[in-house]
Write a structure and sequence with these properties.
Elements (H helix, E strand, L loop, with lengths): L1 E3 L16 E6 L2 E6 L4 H7 L25 E2 L17 E4 L3 H15 L16 H8 L26 E3 L9 H10 L5 E3 L6 E3 L15 H5 L5 E3 H6 L4 E6 L8 E7 L2 E7 L12 H5 L14 E2 L8 E2 L2 H19 L4 E5 L5 H15 L4 E3 L6 H10 L17 E5 L3 H4 L1 H12 L3 E5 L8 E2 L2 E2 L2 E3 L6 H14 L5 H7 L2 H12 L9 H4 L3 H13 L3 E5 L1 H4 L4 H14 L9 E4 L6 H6 L6 E2 L3 E2 L3 H11 L11 H9 L5 E5 L3 H4 L3 H10 L2 E6 L11 E4 L8 E4 L4 E5 L11 H11 L9 H11 L8 H7 L1 E3 L43 E5 L25 E4 L1 H6 L7 E5 L4 E8 L7 E4 L8 H4 L16 E7 L5 H23 L1
Parallel strand pairs: 2-5, 15-16, 15-26, 17-18, 17-22, 18-21, 22-23, 26-27, 27-28, 32-36, 33-35
Antiparallel strand pairs: 1-10, 2-3, 4-5, 6-9, 7-8, 10-11, 11-12, 13-14, 13-28, 19-20, 24-25, 29-30, 30-31, 32-37, 33-36, 34-35, 34-37
Helix pairs in contact: 8-25, 9-25, 9-26, 10-19, 13-17, 13-19, 22-24
């Protein structure tokens, strides 16, 4: 959807919810609005604009600029329309000679201390101050320029994405309020009084302040005081396209603002249901990777990985790959090849990959990155509730009374939802954090968790069982909900298990490491505080008992009746932008789209009729099975779409051995990543800005992705997959991704009503969307569970094999950081590296002191499978015995030490618990040294290909 650039309408003050209606007249126009609406908003709804500078509908009314004055019959003076609520029968005038004179006088004062450089100002034509001066009819400024002023104030250009020019600041406080109300960081303040008032980032520059570069202040600024550097360098955009962010599972809506085919700015879309006009540093600013010089824009092939790449046409590349795959199957059998689909690609693209595998390869050897992150969510929630997805919309948190955050770090990994959660906590909601590490939410500005339960890595199930034990034995459970909504026999069996004193907080203390008194109090709070919501992340799923823990979370929600309405629920925080969608589209080896098992004859018949092929009824290989079989010589060909398994998957040396053993590895990506170093065919991918399609976020929200620029390599990913399929003799005939979605809707009951036309009409849709829910389903399991009755699963705590011992006395756990994303392929190619240029090892000062480790030292981390080296960061965010790192930089080799220990049900790797030893060292590990040599060789082979081209 392409249209000329036009800012979204701003109604001046936020909307209010009220069932009561108030009638009034404004400039002779009679209208009715909800009680509590401001006069300014009522005027805007009537099509009447009142001049303003400090007011915006994304912030609470402030009433400081004095430009929005109005006259109201029966009232003295000139009240500010932004802070004045409507009253029944009120008569308002917004335009009178007296008001015009007052407004010009106020505006004259503002302009008297403002540079008159509009023609050379970067926001010329996109400046509220400039527009408002024209609206009020200001034609001269009589005073101020020769006296005291702020015109020589020095710019702050420390932030890589925006510039702060205090000379243009009118001290309206919109930036300060946006930082407080929208983001919740409280990084900005007003220093000084009167004429000396100024916006300050805590007395330092923006880069060194607590600012998280979300851009809320930039969006709120009505002048050129806070301006994106891209606007300063490239000018005002000419048109915009509504699309969806390709970073985390929040799925923010954005207006990609463009000049020609060059993206100038990404502005958060106010109508985006997932973000409602907010953003984070990644989605808001880190889009430059899409045109980074490292992009590979031509297909490449080679016979062996120690040969130079050869740039070829698309036809030659896909035919080369198809010949290799056919030869492999002819020699090693039908099951000797497979594919991994990408959670960064669209639903339509991953759907085509699983279709290619099943209809073209003739097997079910397809998997996705959800295997190594949220596959336990699918298994656990399917077992207990009947659907492999979260239960709520993000907005549901606004009605939450107590939230449990378990194994998740929303302010770092899902920052826009993290800001929404902080808003609710500041309003009085209670908070329980269950995490080995002290995340920001434990003690943030104006927020403090009621309880932080620092569980030992690997003991999540024990904590959940202990909480359930307290709730059940103290009769805090919702008997009516359980009797009316849940299976009786499984509940009675679970009840006998969980009521056993062996499941008490005291009995499990050694396992959990949590004070039983605090655990009991936290359990009581969750059970009695009202609407209780549980938000969990990879710190729950990436364990040997990940599936068990997810079932334990569902048990806890059912036990307390916290399902089926707003403000409650079980909410998995999905990591990548389309990891939910990749699962929905049938990317698991045992399921067709819509989570239907391949062994089900009726489901197979539906797809066989549509695809005109016979499908294999046996599940295929999971990702770990593929790699094990590759090392054993049984699996020989892999099509890897947009996943960097050589960096992201555990036990790196095993993964590299598997990739190196393949006869043909086809990698489809935008950069030559770690996996591509082992590839024989490279198909250049397309960024989200270069394609049409849909993503599905963590709240089951289907949102449109719209093409902003022509694919640099000539094809979007769905077109590349079609080309490969046709080369293999697998017929695929689609002219646009809308046609692929139409096929998905025909074959998948939960998507039955989904179409691009409906998405364009509604903006987004939460599945299920079908005849029973034609406009989607914000809240799941309202009157009954998808499976009928809820199932209480017995969740026996089984200690992980990855336990601390004399040889490996520390437990390593991993996570993400705000400025980087996943394996860093995108964010490392943006100025985001300003904040995080390398992964570091957080270690408690007791553990560091015992080992003679100082802050900044090189530390060798050794596990039973490998060794790597990281810089030390002495920290009290981890407890003694626990160390922590991120995995955004390939040189760090974090997954060199993670093991092949995995979830019992899904093979999701146990990234969060690795027994290690840490020692002070002076040089990189042997793996890092070998990797550096290998990298240099691969770069040289790429250079040779470029020279040949």
């Amino acid at each position: 959807m392409l249209h000329y650039y036009e800012p979204e309408q701003d109604y001046g003050t936020p909307p209010v919810e009220s069932s009561e209606s108030v009638s009034l007249s404004i400039d002779g126009v009679t209208l009715a609005v909800p009680a509590g609406t401001s006069v300014m908003r009522a005027a805007a709804l009537a099509g009447i604009k009142v001049p303003r500078l400090c007011a915006t509908d994304s912030l609470e009314a402030f009433g400081s600029c004095r430009l929005c004055l109005v006259e109201i019959d029966g009232r003295k003076g000139y009240p500010a329309s932004c802070t004045t609520p409507v009253e029944d029968g009120m008569a308002v005038r917004t335009q009178t000679p007296e008001l015009a004179k007052l407004r010009r006088g106020v505006m004259e004062l503002y302009i008297s201390d403002h540079p008159l450089d509009c023609l050379t100002c970067p926001t010329n034509g996109d400046c509220e101050l400039q527009d408002t001066a024209g609206e009020v009819g200001l034609r001269e400024v009589r005073y101020g320029f020769d006296g005291a002023n702020h015109l020589a104030a020095e710019k702050d250009q420390s932030n890589p994405y925006f510039t702060f020019d205090p000379a243009k600041c009118i001290v309206c406080s919109r930036c300060v309020r946006a930082c407080e109300e929208t983001q919740g960081t409280f990084a900005l303040t007003i220093e000084g009084r009167g004429f000396d008032s100024r916006v300050s980032a805590g007395g330092v520059d923006f880069l060194d302040s607590e600012c998280v570069s979300c851009g809320a202040c930039v969006s709120a600024c009505p002048t050129a005081t806070l301006t994106e550097n891209s606007i300063i360098e490239q000018g005002i955009p000419e048109h915009s396209v509504i699309t969806t962010c390709a970073y985390c599972g929040v799925g923010c809506g954005f207006r990609a603002e463009v000049k020609g085919e060059q993206v100038v700015r990404m502005t958060p879309w106010k109508a985006g249901k997932a973000n409602e006009g907010h953003a984070c540093v990644k989605g808001r600013f880190a889009f430059g990777y899409a045109t980074h010089p490292d992009r590979i824009t031509a297909p490449m092939i080679r016979e062996h990985i120690d040969e130079p790449w050869r740039r070829v046409s698309w036809d030659e590349a896909v035919n080369f790959a198809a010949d290799k795959f056919r030869a492999i199957q002819a020699k090693y059998g039908r099951n000797s090849i497979g594919a991994i689909s990408s959670s960064r690609c669209t639903n339509e693209e991953v759907y085509l990959v699983q279709k290619l595998v099943r209809a073209g390869f003739g097997n079910n050897n397809v998997d996705t990155c959800a295997r190594v992150c949220h596959s336990p969510t699918g298994f656990g929630l399917k077992t207990t509730l009947g659907e492999s997805a979260g239960t709520q919309a993000f907005a549901s948190v606004e009605k939450t009374d107590v939230a449990i955050i378990m194994g998740a770090n929303p302010t770092e990994a899902h920052p826009v939802f993290g800001s929404r959660l902080k808003q609710r906590l500041r309003q009085g909601a209670r908070l329980i954090v269950i995490d080995p590490r002290r995340i920001e939410l434990v003690n943030a500005p104006h927020i403090r968790a009621d309880y932080h339960l620092p569980v030992n890595p690997g003991a999540n199930v024990a904590v959940l069982n202990a909480m359930a034990h307290v709730i059940l034995t103290e009769n805090l459970h919702d008997v009516e909900f359980i009797e009316s909504r849940c299976e009786k026999t499984p509940f009675e069996e679970w009840k006998a298990f969980i009521a056993d004193p062996a499941q008490s907080p005291e009995a499990l203390q050694q396992a959990t490491g949590v004070d039983p008194v605090l655990l009991r109090e936290a359990a009581r709070l969750y059970a009695t505080a009202g609407n209780g919501a549980i938000y969990y992340g990879l710190g729950v799923t990436e364990h040997s008992q990940g599936s068990t823990a997810v079932m334990g979370i569902a048990n806890l929600a059912m036990l307390t009746g916290n399902l089926g309405r707003e403000g409650v629920g079980v909410n998995p925080m999905r990591g990548q932008n389309n990891v939910q969608g990749s699962c929905d589209m049938g990317s698991f080896p045992h399921e067709l789209p819509g989570y239907r098992h391949v062994s089900d004859a009726a489901t197979r018949a539906l797809f066989e009729s549509a695809w005109q092929v016979e499908l294999d009824p046996e599940p295929g290989m999971r990702i770990p099975n593929m790699f094990d079989a590759a090392v054993d010589g049984e699996f020989r060909g892999l099509y890897c779409q947009g996943e960097d398994v050589a960096q992201s998957d555990p036990n790196t040396q095993h993964i590299e051995a598997a990739l190196g053993a393949l006869d043909c590895l086809v990698v489809q990506d935008i950069f030559l990543n770690e996996t591509a170093k082992f590839a024989h065919v490279f198909l250049p991918g397309a960024s989200f800005l270069e394609k049409d399609g849909t993503f599905i976020n963590a709240e089951r929200r289907i949102s449109r992705v719209r093409k902003v620029m022509t694919p640099l390599a000539g094809k979007a990913d769905w077109e590349a997959t079609i080309a490969f399929a046709r080369a293999l003799g697998c017929a695929m005939d689609y002219g646009h991704p809308a046609e692929i979605m139409d096929e998905i809707a025909r074959l998948t009951p939960t998507f039955e009503g989904v179409s691009y036309a409906l998405l364009d009409e509604l903006g987004s849709i939460q599945w299920p969307c079908n005849e029973r829910a034609p406009r989607g389903t914000p809240t799941m399991h309202v009157n009954a569970f998808v499976r009928g009755e809820g199932y209480f699963a017995v969740t026996e705590y089984v200690p992980t094999d990855e336990r601390a011992n004399r040889r490996f006395p520390l437990l390593l756990t991993t996570g993400r950081i705000l400025s980087q994303y996943n394996v860093g392929a995108q964010t490392r190619r943006t100025p985001n590296s300003t904040w995080h240029e390398q992964d570091v090892l957080e270690i408690h000062h007791h553990d560091a002191q015992e080992r003679g480790i100082n802050d900044g030292d090189w530390v060798g981390i050794q596990s039973r499978v490998g060794t790597t080296v990281l810089r030390a960061k002495i920290s009290d965010r981890v407890r003694p015995g626990v160390i922590y790192t991120t995995f955004h930089h390939p040189v760090s080799g974090a997954n060199v030490v993670t093991t092949d220990s995995s979830d019992w049900a899904t093979n999701c790797p146990e990234y969060k618990v690795t027994a290690v030893q840490a020692t002070r060292v002076s040089e990189p590990s042997a793996w890092q040294a070998r990797q550096q040599q290998f990298d240099q060789r691969q770069r040289q082979l790429l250079v040779e290909a470029t020279m040949d081209a």
